[in-house]
Amino acid sequence: MNPSSLESEDQFQFVTERSLTEHLRFLELDDTSRAQLRDILRIIQPHRTALIERFYAHLFKFPQTSRFLTDAVVVERLKSAQLEHLESMLTADWNEA
Known about the structure:
Elements: H1 3-27, H2 31-44, H3 48-60, H4 63-66, H5 72-91
């Protein structure tokens, strides 16, 4: 790695930590909300794949969205990414720095 990329990474980390409180406030994620997110994960964990499949089945019903989902390989990657995003939101450590 070159020194400039390290500097950028350090700067990004600083900004992220410094602004976490504001982000949490904007999202209205207080302690109760964070606990609820953890509870939701326990409820949907066994159904998460089916949830993503239903979401994409819904998107395929409408020409406005299905036109972006014509490549099966891309759709599978999108589903995988959506699943990872869902899990990361529900398992995130939303504690203030």
